[in-house]
Design brief:
The protein is an alpha/beta fold. It is built from nine helices and 13 strands. The strands form three sheets. A seven-stranded mixed beta sheet has the order 5-4-3-10-11-13-12.
Length: 255
């Protein structure tokens, strides 16, 4: 069964158009395979409910950033909700995932959704995406602390962007909302947008994949006056944030 499914994914059948049945991007045009949970509306249900509740359900005109966009279920949904007066910026360094993200953007005619084949990071430049020979996976990532690139990790050179640089250059609007799910390098992404966080005080929704990512994120967000609350608790331990999704909301101006 799995072999037959993989063969279908590699054909034009996998790109057949369907409608998203529920969730943040309900009604959007999508592709049939893979990741059918996206268009079925069953992917990350607690996170999707949280995103749907942004701004009391009305985020027209907002600027939103989606870091680790994958196929774009949140990017597309946010772009539909902010409308033509808003802006959504989606960042996805994996070339196969980016190609599907771009297809979904075109299918839904969303020119105010800006897509970047790049990883949000502490600084603008180049890095290596570790793929372990499987670009179909959602777990390709920039190197974790202590993880060395090598033949087995099948590294792929990718662009990195400091989002503060993009804002300063006038290519991005400061955000009202940021979603981060970047497989362990979220603290680096936060470091590269620290000025924008301090200036615009956006809500941040972040998924955690390592203790280093947790500690790094808290060291940036807590001094900026952010409180946190669990959206989807950790799958590993109630005492850990790793494997969970958390809201960060600004409590007060930074000191």
């Amino acid at each position: 069964m799995r072999l037959r499914l993989r063969r279908l994914i590699g054909t034009t059948v996998g790109r057949l158009p369907v409608r998203v049945r529920g969730g943040v991007a309900q009604g959007a045009r999508w592709t049939l395979f893979p990741w059918t949970s996206y268009w079925r509306g069953t992917y990350e249900p607690l996170v999707q409910v949280a995103v749907c509740g942004l701004g009391g359900g009305d985020i027209r005109g907002w600027s939103c950033w989606d870091l680790g966009a994958h196929f774009g279920i949140y990017s597309i949904g946010l772009a539909m909700r902010v409308g033509a007066e808003g802006q959504v910026a989606a960042f996805e360094p994996n070339p196969e995932s980016f190609a599907r993200l771009e297809r979904h953007r075109r299918m839904n005619n969303l020119p105010w959704l800006r897509t970047y084949r790049a990883a949000a990071a502490a600084r603008t430049g180049l890095s290596e995406l570790l793929t372990y020979g499987n670009l179909d996976s959602t777990t390709t990532h920039l190197a974790y602390e202590g993880e060395a690139a090598g033949e087995s990790s099948a590294p792929l050179s990718v662009r990195t962007l400091s989002l503060d640089d993009e804002v300063e250059a006038g290519r991005l609007r400061e955000p009202q909302f940021v979603k981060i799910d970047v497989e362990g390098s979220g603290h680096g992404a936060l470091l590269g947008m620290r000025l924008s966080l301090a200036a615009s005080r956006p809500a941040v929704l972040m998924a955690f994949h390592s203790e280093s990512e947790v500690n790094g994120a808290l060291s940036i967000l807590e001094p900026l006056g952010y409180d946190r609350a669990a959206v989807a608790p950790s799958t590993s331990s109630p005492a850990s944030m790793v494997g969970g999704d958390f809201w960060f909301t600004p409590r007060r101006p930074p000191v």
